[in-house]
């Protein structure tokens, strides 16, 4: 363990979080004004196959990002407090508990990534990094919002055979991961891709391997 209570394998992520610039994470950056503040929890744990990430799959009936795998998270509520203070951290933990049933007392926040923008929904999203030092049970709390909750071993995320480039009907291309019977793409895949890169975990992969997205995506 490090002096901050983190496992040694997680230190590269903590270091990257302290130095990474917004434009190194995404080309979609928040506008000067507007946008709804939100936070997601990027939760690292230790599973049977080593380091892993907690993800969820959104219900197919939702109006935005339906059926997409994502990090737990959502918009700030008034009770979360100041978004310039600890409000975003509280929002990330509260949403994770509401969506996955995990116990936030077992999560150690160890970093915050720069705010990013999701143009299709107008959210200004802050990725909050957590270490699951005391894992708890998880499940899809509300099936109307969450189809399932699952963990993905980091070794599967770094496996070149599980990587691809998605091609959206709009022409936009981005990284994707084919893991746990899911296609992880969009905002979530973009952030995972950058974390793997800046943590030094990325392995060369075939960017010419394309997956065409449905027009409803």
UniProtKB/TrEMBL annotation:
Superkingdom field: Bacteria
A Pfam entry, by short name: NUDIX
SUPFAM superfamilies referenced in this protein's UniProt entry, alphabetically: Nudix
CDD domains named in the record: NUDIX_CoAse_Nudt7
Cofactor: Mg(2+); Mn(2+)
Region Disordered, residue ranges: 63-87
Nudix hydrolase domain boundaries: 34-179
Metal-binding found in the keyword field: yes
Catalytic activity, EC: 3.6.1.55
Keywords for the protein's UniProt record, in alphabetical order: Hydrolase, Magnesium, Manganese, Metal-binding
GO function term, MF aspect, one: 8-oxo-7,8-dihydrodeoxyguanosine triphosphate pyrophosphatase activity
Protein name as annotated: CoA pyrophosphatase
Organism: Streptomyces ficellus
């Amino acid at each position: 363990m490090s002096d901050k209570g983190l496992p040694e394998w997680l230190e590269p992520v903590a270091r990257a979080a302290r130095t990474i610039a917004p434009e190194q994470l995404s080309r979609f950056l928040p506008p000067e004004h507007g946008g709804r503040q939100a936070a997601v929890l990027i939760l690292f744990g230790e599973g049977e196959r080593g380091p892993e990430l907690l993800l969820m799959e959104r219900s197919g009936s939702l109006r935005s990002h339906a059926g997409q795998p994502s990090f737990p998270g959502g918009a700030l509520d008034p009770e979360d407090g100041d978004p310039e203070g600890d409000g975003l951290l509280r929002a990330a933990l509260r949403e994770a508990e509401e969506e996955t049933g995990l116990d936030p007392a077992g999560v150690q926040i160890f970093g915050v990534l720069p705010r990013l923008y999701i143009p299709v929904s107008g959210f200004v999203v802050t990725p909050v990094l957590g270490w699951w030092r005391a894992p708890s049970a998880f499940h899809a709390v509300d099936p109307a919002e969450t189809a399932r909750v699952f963990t993905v071993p980091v070794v599967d995320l770094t496996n070149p055979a599980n990587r691809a480039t998605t091609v959206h009907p709009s022409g936009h291309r981005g990284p994707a991961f084919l893991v746990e019977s899911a296609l992880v793409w969009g905002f979530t895949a973009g952030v995972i891709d950058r974390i793997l890169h800046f943590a030094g975990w990325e392995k060369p992969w075939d960017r010419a391997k394309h997956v065409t997205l449905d027009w409803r995506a």
